[in-house]
Design a protein that fits this description.
Helices cover 20% and strands 31% of the residues. The chain has five helices and ten strands; from the N terminus they run βαββαβββαβββααβ. It has helices at 27-39, 75-80, 137-144, 195-208, 215-222, and strands at residues 2-10, 46-47, 56-66, 87-95, 106-116, 129-131, 149-152, 167-178, 181-188, 237-244. Strands 1, 2, 3, 4, 5, 6, 7, 8, 9 and 10 form a ten-stranded mixed sheet that branches. Strand 8 (167-178) and strand 9 (181-188) form a beta hairpin.
């Protein structure tokens, strides 16, 4: 028996999220189906980040155990011949038997992309959120600074999430603008349900002048989802980097 880790990239548009669901297409479901077909075993992968419906990824990870003799590093080629075009294995490698992606110290980086122009750009509609309301990226960056460090992000977690703690550490949060495109780049040790999208929705309210940057401190202190802004649409979000620190 050996454990194999996959680095998975996908366009999440056609899927109901990463995690397996009954009667709905998911990334996990496609990986399990493909591995069963390839290895002739009833495989159930363990995912690193359970992204929401419509969210994309360049480097999510999944691990599974197998008795197959095929070398782990060769599995990416065989799987990519069986997976749909919107899912690709970028790397496959054997890891220690006890390795579990959600129990390791890690650093995840998400990008939230916004097209801020008078009219939408059709070629970016699946990978960016569009708004014609002018956004001030400078104000958004000023507000972003309040999130850096270790905080209780309960105000930025969707109701119904079942976690032991809502405390998370944000290593960096940068808002940049290039022409009509704004990118929110956030790196942290882990994220709550809808956390990045709620942060993005709140920062956009700051960019529109609805909230002041300093108001972020009050929202964090409130520990109440109703204090923060709306949940930004999923299409703008992408898991861009995933590093294991130990």
């Amino acid at each position: 028996m050996k454990r194999v880790m996959l680095t998975v990239a996908y366009d999440g548009t056609a899927y109901s999220g990463y995690q397996m669901q009954e009667n709905a297409p998911t990334i996990e479901g496609e990986l399990n189906r493909c591995l069963k077909d390839l290895l002739k075993e009833d495989i159930r992968v363990i995912g690193g980040s359970r992204t929401d419906a419509g969210v994309h990824a360049l480097c999510n990870v999944a691990v599974f155990d197998t008795c197959a003799r095929m070398p782990g590093e060769k599995m990416s080629y065989a799987m990519n011949q069986r997976l749909p075009e919107d899912i690709r294995i970028r790397k496959a490698q054997e890891v220690a038997q006890g390795f579990h992606p959600r129990r390791c110290d890690s650093r995840k980086t998400y990008l939230y992309r916004i097209v801020n122009s008078a009219f939408p750009i059709p070629t970016k509609r699946l990978y960016s959120h569009f708004t014609y309301v002018p956004l001030d990226a400078g104000r958004m960056q000023e507000a972003a600074a309040f999130f850096v460090g270790e905080h209780d992000f309960k105000s930025f977690c969707s109701a119904g999430s079942q976690v032991e703690s809502t405390v998370r550490r944000i290593h960096s949060l940068e808002v940049t603008r290039e022409g009509e495109e704004i990118t929110i780049c956030v790196a942290g040790n882990g994220f709550l349900y809808h956390m990045v999208r709620i942060i993005a929705g709140t920062l956009m309210e700051v960019g529109r002048g609805v909230r002041e940057p300093a108001h972020m401190a009050e929202i964090l202190e409130a520990k109440d989802r109703r204090a923060a802004g709306p949940t930004a649409p999923a299409c703008g979000l992408c898991l861009a980097d995933y590093k294991f620190l130990s």
